[in-house]
């Protein structure tokens, strides 16, 4: 009986063998014959990593239909446009399931957004700015527009996103926070009036995991979550409309304002400026979430007052405060005394409206909380846990997590297994972890002593390094 050769094997068996080969062996096999090259193409281009803009421009887009996972970095020695090359590549990736973009140069929204609409299989999307945000500004409007163009998106990670001046008052933003300017041309072709502010990501219906890293959220303490008002359309109110705040404009949370499938939310805070009330503003727009990961503290969000400013704030931004209006009316009273009684009656009505009781902002139910010990300030643990006490937390974990290398299940580590690992006390990082563990132990012990008996918390675990861990069973 003659021995079987590679070419005599059925195609299905050849493909099964190729899936067992390493990348290097697959490449070697592909150059043995034209038939082997065709069989190896799906394996060779299944995972593609493009390290620079120069590599992007020379990539063979004819083979992109085999790509399932794609990572692109557009870094370059000089500022050159890469939008056309990236759009051409994405239009050819008809079976793409995972995409990671690290952008070193701005993209043209008119070219790149239509290319994203054809990625119907893409469920994992990561996008961030490579380098300094001042040099390569990644507008929140572009990020949201791209995410909304993906019909199957379930996992989204954004990092180093610049907030748009269309959604943020530049006079109230910290001086060291870069803002995206001149991005009013970023719109969705099918819905030009769609809200493209960063909190709109919470409304993606298919989204299960959302990570927001190194992005300033301090401007989101008052964002609304119901049907948004287009920024280009001023709010028209009849002249006889009472100056009252309607609940649809007051930022009152509702279950319909977030994705019903959202299970995980990661908020690491900003590398420029911390705002402890911003995470609670995002949480107030969610009804339930399984896993929450924090890299910045959470403080109690001031309740939204029922006053006369809300309709104008929703449409245009900040409006003169009640105290400013009162001072202006008092100045008018001093200038003219002929109409003194009507003016004082108007001022009393203004004060009575602004003194009405505030509307509460409830927080969602949360099953698990993970705290990133690398960026979370230890002295803010007590306040954060007090704010989240009403969320029904069942378990809390603390550990060092990397925004780049940590897997999606990084919060599900086992402190018992970590504690059994050997401890290398000669390692400097381990010594630092041991010192940090003692600090966390003292803070958690003090926190548990004053915890409410009605608390649903059942376990707290800290794992900072192999062998450096602690666990509390309640």
UniProtKB/TrEMBL annotation:
Top-rank lineage group of the source organism: Eukaryota
Name of the protein this chain belongs to: Uncharacterized protein
């Amino acid at each position: 009986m003659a021995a079987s050769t590679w070419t005599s094997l059925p195609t299905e068996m050849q493909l099964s063998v190729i899936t067992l080969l390493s990348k290097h062996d697959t490449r070697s096999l592909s150059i043995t014959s034209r038939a082997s090259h065709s069989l190896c193409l799906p394996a060779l281009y299944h995972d593609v990593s493009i390290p620079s803009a120069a590599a992007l421009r020379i990539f063979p887009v004819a083979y992109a239909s085999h790509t399932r996972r794609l990572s692109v970095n557009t870094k370059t020695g000089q500022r050159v446009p890469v939008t056309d090359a990236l759009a051409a590549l994405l239009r050819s990736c008809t079976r793409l399931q995972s995409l990671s973009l690290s952008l070193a140069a701005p993209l043209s929204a008119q070219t790149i957004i239509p290319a994203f609409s054809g990625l119907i299989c893409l469920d994992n999307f990561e996008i961030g700015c490579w380098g300094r945000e001042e040099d390569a500004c990644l507008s929140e409007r572009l990020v949201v527009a791209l995410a909304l163009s993906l019909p199957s998106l379930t996992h989204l990670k954004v990092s180093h996103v610049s907030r748009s001046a269309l959604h943020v008052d530049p006079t109230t933003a910290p001086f060291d926070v870069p803002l995206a300017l001149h991005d009013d041309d970023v719109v969705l072709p099918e819905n030009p009036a769609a809200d493209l502010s960063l909190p709109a990501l919470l409304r993606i219906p298919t989204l299960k995991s959302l990570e927001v890293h190194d992005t300033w959220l301090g401007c989101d303490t008052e964002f609304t979550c119901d049907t948004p008002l287009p920024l280009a359309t001023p709010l028209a109110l009849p002249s006889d409309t009472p100056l009252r705040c309607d609940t649809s404009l007051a930022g009152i949370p509702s279950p319909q304002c977030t994705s019903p499938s959202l299970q995980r939310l990661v908020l690491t805070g900003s590398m420029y400026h911390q705002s402890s009330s911003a995470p609670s503003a995002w949480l107030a727009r969610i009804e339930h979430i399984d896993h929450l990961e924090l890299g910045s503290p959470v403080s109690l969000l001031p309740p939204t007052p029922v006053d006369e400013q809300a309709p104008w704030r929703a449409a245009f931004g900040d409006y003169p405060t009640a105290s400013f209006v009162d001072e202006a009316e008092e100045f008018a009273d001093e200038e003219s005394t002929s109409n003194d009684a009507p003016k004082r009656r108007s001022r009393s009505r203004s004060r009575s409206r602004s003194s009405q009781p505030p509307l509460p902002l409830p927080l969602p139910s949360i099953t698990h909380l993970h705290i990133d010990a690398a960026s979370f300030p230890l002295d803010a643990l007590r306040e954060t846990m007090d704010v989240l006490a009403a969320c029904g937390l069942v378990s809390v974990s603390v550990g060092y997590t990397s925004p780049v290398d940590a897997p999606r299940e990084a919060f599900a580590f086992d402190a018992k297994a970590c504690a059994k690992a050997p401890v290398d006390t000669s390692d400097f990082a381990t010594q630092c972890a041991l010192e940090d563990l003692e600090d966390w132990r003292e803070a958690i012990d003090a926190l548990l002593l004053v915890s409410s008996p009605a608390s649903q918390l059942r376990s707290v675990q800290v794992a900072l390094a192999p062998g450096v861990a602690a666990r509390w069973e309640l």
